[in-house]
Amino acid sequence: MLQRPIMWLMAFLLVISVIGVVTDFYPKRRRPEWLAFTNRWLQAIFQPLLLVVVWGVVTRQIIVLLYLPARGILTLTLLYYMVMFAPFASVIGTAIEWTVPRVVCLLYWSVAVIQTIPLVYPESLTGSRFLMQGLHAGLFGSVSFFVLVTTLMRGWHLSWPGLKPHWHSDISVWVIIFLVAFDLVFTFWNAFNNPSKWWGLLTQYNFSGIRVDRLLTMQAAAAGIAEETLFRFGILGVLLAGLRHSDHRVPASILISATLFGLIHFTNVSAQQWDTTTIQVLGAFGTGLFFSCVYLYTGQLWMTMLMHFLVDWTAFMTLGVPLMVGHATSLDWAAVTFQLVIDVAIFIWMLFGDRRHAMERHANRFTGRRQRFDYVLPKYEFH
Fold first, then answer.
1. What is the per-residue pLDDT across 61-96, written as a single tens digit (0 to 9) for each?
2. 312: nearest Cα among 351, 345, 340, 284
């Protein structure tokens, strides 16, 4: 039997869907603008939740009522889950036209797609520890969110960066080597640095207590895919398009996206101390500056996804948990200050010379109308 809250939620979401269908078939010339506007936002808010709830209910009912193996059914329905938001994105999501609403919707849809699965699908019906960990780590939801954002960006005429590098004379191999080397050094320092005094910030390390854990690995992979999709591919691309007439669109877009990337980590305050979370927010802001520069300079999203994964994975393996523990010390504040100084310095350095030219060129490519896929979105206008 379905739990009563799920039943009521499903009934409410179905009413919203009926409203959408009725409004959509209402004669366009006689349709009030307020009705079209209200319906557009109702669907943008509630349709992703409806999709998740229906997916969870249908999957569990197939398993329970038909006595079919949970592992096989869940595997098949997860494949559908990873692509089921694409039609929503192409019809409803592409109707969102302004920059700020697009940013807000991307933030909200990331939560709706990734975080709601454990609420509608019980662990007892996974049939596999691997599938259970993938669901609750957000790994499968992250892939689904990537497909959603990719579809959205095409509908918004914002190009997918592609896998083939578009490197011209403004790209220096030495700059790329420096960015990769810095990321590896930072990953090592962030995971293993354990100073007892401030002068040990660069010299004292602790390699004890390291263990490889599958769930933590999945959580790190989910963070790398989801957060880079959201903040570099999605939000940064939307900001670059919205500020396309500004001479300072690249630095402004990087600063705004990095700020949002940092602030989103305040959601961890429910499981962490406030001072520790503040340090995490500041560190994420600096890392966001660096990842944005790497993304715009190389034009490669997979590179920042891999960098992000390695930073989180090594930190998770060292801590044993995906969150920071305890209260912040003076050494923690010194470490995050040191990181911010370095990240800001690299950000400023990247804004000059051929480095700036390469980032501007990639920004033009990301916000141009040239698409990176060969499929064609349906010519359907949502009202």
1. 888 888 888 888 888 989 999 999 999 999 889 889
2. 284
Question: Which 8-state DSSP code applies to residue 229?
Answer: I
Question: Helix 214-227 vs helix 139-155: angle between axes, to the nearest 10 degrees?
Answer: 10
CB atoms within 10 A of CB 187: 19
Six-digit token string for 147: 């497909």
Length of the chain as a residue count: 383
Scanning the chain, the segments in alpha helix (DSSP H) are 4-24, 33-66, 70-81, 86-91, 99-114, 117-120, 129-137, 139-155, 173-192, 214-227, 237-242, 249-263, 274-298, 301-319, 330-349, 353-366
Residues of 12-38 as b/e, b for ≥16 C-beta within 10 angstroms? Answer: ebeebbebbeebbeeeeeeeeeeebee
Largest CA distance in the chain: 72
The string of pLDDT tens digits covering residues 246-291 is: 999 999 999 999 999 999 999 999 888 999 999 999 999 999 999 9
